[in-house]
Structures are given as structure tokens and as C-alpha cells.
């Protein structure tokens, strides 16, 4: 992990890049993707395995999301100073609200980290 590497190898006075991270979430609607992932279990090489669908829907996925599927504003839920964070700091709860961008279904949440290089000698512009 970053924390392990920082504590083991970062020299005193050294800087960590990136040094800040913000966990953000948004909602998505992607019926085609959902149907593809769940529909697969309707016929797995001739076997009906629909009972697996309830487990598949409960498991988190790591995948790319088309930006057109995002249907809410992003919401920051946790900020991390990578230079000082401790493992126990990562056990957190966060209340948040998201604003819908359009009238649509919500089929899931997407989460990602935005990272920052605050020790840079250049002014950074967030796009």
C-alpha cells in the first residue's frame, strides 16, 4: 500500500506525489451493461445459472464507466492526506447527498479517487 511504502522508504523531509486524494461517488444508469452482466447467467454454456445473479449484483465491480452513464453530480465523501494518513484513519463513514442531473434510474454507484500534487511548483488547474 501507499502507507506501507511511505513509512518504509520515504526519506525524512521527502515528499510524496501525489500527496492528497479525494474519494468521490456518483450514480449511474447503464441498463445495457447491467443486462449483459446479469443475463450471462441465464445460459452459461447451456446451463441455467440464474441463482448466481443475486450474488453477482451484490459484488463490487472494477470497470470503466462511460461518462454518459453518470446521472448525478459527483460528491466528495472522504479526503486523504497521503503524507500523514494512518491505516486506522481509513475506517470511515460519511453522510452525503447527490444531485441528480436528469430524470433517470439509478442502477449503481461509481467511486473513484481524484489525486492532487500540492507540492508542485506549478499552479494546478482542475478540469
Can you offer a commentary on this structure?
18% of the residues lie in helices and 20% in strands. It is an alpha+beta fold and 127 residues long. The protein has a 3-stranded antiparallel beta sheet with strand order 2-1-3, with no helix packed on it. The protein is elongated, with a radius of gyration of 19 Å. The mean pLDDT is 90.
Question: Brief overview, please?
Answer:
By secondary structure, this protein is α+β, with helices and mostly antiparallel strands. It contains three helices and three strands.
Record keyword descriptors for this entry:
single chain, 127 residues, alpha+beta, 3-stranded antiparallel sheet, 3 helices, 3 strands
Q: What structural class should be given to the helix and strand makeup? A: alpha+beta
Shape: elongated
Please trace the helix and strand order, writing H or E for each element. HEHHEE
What is the terminal-to-terminal distance? 28 Å
Strand content: 15-25%
Please outline the major beta sheet: 3 strands, antiparallel
Spatial strand sequence of the major β-sheet: 2-1-3
Number of strands: 3
Low-confidence stretches: none
Number of helices: 3
Quick check: average pLDDT? 90
Query: Roughly how many Å is the radius of gyration?
Result: 19 Å
**Proportion of helical residues:** 10-25%
Topology:
Layout: H1 2-9, E1 20-28, H2 31-39, H3 53-58, E2 75-81, E3 108-116
Antiparallel strand pairs: 1-2, 1-3
Amino acid at each position: 500500500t501507499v502507507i506501507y511504502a511511505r513509512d518504509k522508504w520515504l526519506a525524512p523531509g521527502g515528499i510524496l506525489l501525489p500527496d492528497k486524494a479525494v474519494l468521490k461517488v456518483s450514480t449511474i444508469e447503464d441498463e445495457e451493461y447491467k443486462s449483459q452482466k446479469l443475463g450471462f447467467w441465464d445460459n452459461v454454456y447451456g446451463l441455467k445459472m440464474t441463482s448466481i445473479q443475486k450474488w453477482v449484483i451484490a459484488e463490487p465491480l472494477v470497470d470503466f464507466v462511460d461518462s454518459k452513464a453518470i446521472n448525478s453530480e459527483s460528491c466528495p465523501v472522504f479526503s486523504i492526506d497521503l503524507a500523514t494518513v494512518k491505516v486506522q484513519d481509513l475506517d470511515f463513514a460519511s453522510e452525503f447527498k447527490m444531485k441528480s442531473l436528469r430524470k433517470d434510474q439509478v442502477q449503481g454507484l461509481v467511486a473513484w479517487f481524484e489525486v492532487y500534487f500540492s507540492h508542485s511548483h506549478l499552479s494546478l488547474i482542475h478540469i
